[in-house]
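Weekly puzzle thread! Below is a chain. First person to post its structure in token form gets bragging rights.
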Amino acid sequence: MSRALTIGRIGPGVTLQDEGRAGYLGFGLSRGGAADRLALAEGAALLGQGRDLAVLEMAGMGGDFTAGADLRIALTGAPMQATLDGAALAWNASHAMPKGAVLSIGGARMGSYGYLHVGGGFDAPKRLGARGAHLAAGLGAPLEQGARLDTGAETGDQTGLTLDPGERFGGGTIRMVESFQTALFPQDQVERFTATEFRRGARGNRMGVPLEQEGAGFTLEGGRNVLSDVVVPGDIQITGDGTPYVLLAECQTTGGYPRIGTVLPCDMPRLVQAGPGAPLRFAFVTLDEAVELEREAARHVETMGKRLSPLLRDPQRMGDLLSYDLISGVSAGDTHKH
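Winning reply:
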């Protein structure tokens, strides 16, 4: 056996993903890539390697994976139950996976997308400059049972590290800037939008996700359609029935539904990781505020490697990670504080 993972049981929404394909918007191909790009950076930091490597993105469900050689792995994104040869593994951490070991990853206990990283990344062929699948464009496909995933050259040897993923798996407030059509909406509609608590709809996928709310939908004076123009991930379209729909990684490249706002890239991980039914609110910020928030987020990513913590040498931290209460977002060791 070689440096590879062989897939046994597999969930229906597991794909190879990376940073996506930049530069093809004019040809009708959106960038795609991992739904939660912050999870890419977290895995790269845990394994001490580049953020451009391919990983497994698991949409709600993982699978069983057998190592063909000694590997290093990291688990990031939406927390899922994980075991290695039956022994529980902490999420948001890096681990050694010996040759012949079986990694089992169950369903997401919170959030939407979990990620499996390996040392050296997954060595799949590049198409249009990237290894990741873009399902809407017909590039790649969900992975199937029996597939063998070769891995790239290993560049490190450290494992047993963990990081704090922040609170981005239970919804919350999403910041946005005005879009091209924000001013076309009546002021009372805009104010109602920012005052409404939405729930993430269950019909979401990598192209986008609907927002559900009680009461009437949102309207635009003069009709709900505008001249089609360029759209990007984060745009919040108001569809024909008044439902807000947030575009995600594999969205179309043009659209004619009016956009009431555009989510900041640094808040997209919180948006995409909100599980079905999670509460979401939206708040406008100015362009100057948005620029500073994006700079702060970039600094957070660039310094992530300096904030790693030892996992195995801290028994209390290990116990808290394994017993994490993923419904309340409170670890077992912190329950006395609430």
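Puzzle host: Confirmed. Bonus trivia for everyone else. The helical segments are 37-47, 187-195, 268-272, 287-302, 315-322.
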